[in-house]
Design goal:
alpha/beta, 2 domains, globular
Length: 451
């Protein structure tokens, strides 16, 4: 069904848009089941309450495969050659902070970023679970698993705009499926999963399924069904449709979501600023470096999406690590700074949190193939926006980049911070799993350094 009632921690209720596969085919009269709410119901409820929550959002950039922390944000220039690699540190706009030479644009804007050099607790698996939920993949597996942050937002806060899903996953399909996972709805169920523009839901909005002309035809078809149902309803229980049904169709006929995903509407100068990330290299079974996805993310949060996830590149550098970092890193440098500057110029940066990170780090020692292997002992993350205190580095690793030397930061501390930026207290907010047990969003406090 299109929408369901969501119970919030304070006991109040808000309609939550789950965007199931057939959501655009079930507007109006097709919501027949008991308790099934339609887009028209959402519009009706909003007209009664007159309330809309202020929008906060997150853009979660997953660097699938495990990016090498010591070649990006935590260089070790004084380590032996077989550890430090070929990149040199460069100064940034914040005195005393240096990062890798592949990121000159981030360096020039370092005052807008915060780097965590001591992320610990990685499971060591090639999956996005800890970067989308804060929990290991096996947590609550028996009841469906932990929901990702996008699904939590869809459940607790619902849509900002009835025609725009609260959670969108932009990752292109990959051969290794975990690397294009936008975040699982877990025990919340598929109604709270991500809307995927490459998926069947988007096809329902395009010509051949729901063009404006066919939508008008479907409106007439539904009206015919309504007349038939009224004729069959001897008790007169069937209620007449109202203006909200017409509004629901009008929203779908001129969807802000479709417009946001149409980059032909964007200023060519802005497109050039982000770049396209081509040519795509080192892709194998992973994601391409689609710079335009970061621009789409900005366009989506601008029209009301609360969480956008995307996978940028394939960072599993068991060989040719330095060529890969030069390719992926330079493209990420362009797209990430373009996104942060774009949000800042539009007055959105304090309300939108941007994070880029991977599932683990890579070995300090360079292997015989000029690569780095899996290293779950420590990794890094870079954040911006969200009203956070930026222009700083949190934590450190030892001289060889082997482990956290001070201020180890758990994934859940980062998620507690993300939830806080989104207006959710993860220490007091719970969701009931299918067994009826309340489950906290995290078990840690937000990072005090960023607040």
């Amino acid at each position: 069904m299109l929408t369901i009632v969501g119970q919030r921690p304070d006991g109040s209720q808000r309609f939550c848009d789950g965007l199931s596969r057939r959501m655009f085919l079930r507007v109006g009269a097709l919501g027949l089941g008991a308790g099934a709410l339609t887009l028209a119901d959402v519009l009706r409820a909003e007209s009664i309450t007159g309330k809309k929550q202020p929008q906060k959002a997150i853009i979660n950039v997953f660097l699938g495969g495990g990016p090498p922390h010591q070649d990006m944000w935590d260089l070790k220039p004084n380590a032996p050659a077989e550890i430090r690699g070929e990149f040199k540190p460069i100064a940034t706009s914040v005195p005393g902070i240096e990062i890798g030479e592949v990121f000159p644009l981030v360096a020039a804007q370092m005052h807008k970023f915060a780097v965590i050099r001591s992320v610990v607790g990685a499971s060591g698996r090639h999956d996005a679970e800890q970067c989308t939920t804060g929990w290991p993949q096996d947590s609550l597996k028996s009841v469906g698993g932990r929901p990702s942050i996008g699904s939590v937002l869809a459940r607790l806060q619902g849509p900002v705009d009835p025609s725009v899903p609260p959670f969108v996953g932009l990752a292109a399909p990959t051969q290794a499926m975990p690397w294009s996972n936008p975040g699982s709805p877990g025990f919340l169920g598929p109604a709270y999963g991500a809307f995927k523009p490459d998926g069947p839901g988007m096809e329902n909005m395009r010509l051949g399924a729901i063009s404006a002309a066919r939508l008008r035809d479907r409106r007439l078809l539904l009206a015919g069904f309504d007349r038939l149902r009224r004729d069959l309803d001897a008790r007169g229980a069937m209620q007449a449709k109202d203006q909200f049904d017409r509004d629901a169709f009008d929203l779908l006929a001129s969807s802000r979501l479709v417009e946001a995903l149409d980059l032909s509407r964007e200023d060519p100068k802005v497109l050039a600023r982000y770049g396209d990330g081509k040519p795509y290299q080192y892709q194998y079974d992973g994601a391409p470096t689609v710079n335009e996805h970061l621009l789409l993310a900005r366009r989506l949060v601008e029209v009301g999406v609360r969480c956008v996830t995307l996978t940028f590149g394939r960072w599993d550098s068991h060989s040719e690590n330095f060529q890969l970092v030069r390719d992926h890193g330079s493209k990420l440098d362009q797209a990430l700074t373009a996104l942060v500057d774009d949000l800042d110029e539009r007055g959105m940066l304090d309300d939108v949190t941007v994070i880029a990170w991977g599932e683990f780090g890579r070995t300090p020692r360079i292997n015989k193939n000029a690569g780095r292997d899996h290293w779950p002992q420590v990794s890094c993350a870079i954040l911006a926006g969200g009203g956070m205190r930026t222009g700083q580095v949190i934590g450190s690793t030892n001289r060889l980049g082997e482990h956290a030397q001070d201020r180890p930061v758990d994934f859940q501390e980062i998620f507690a911070t993300l939830y806080r930026n989104l207006g959710i207290n993860s220490a007091s907010t719970t969701l009931r799993d299918p067994s009826g047990r309340p489950q906290y969003l995290t078990q840690r406090e937000p990072l005090r350094e960023l607040i």
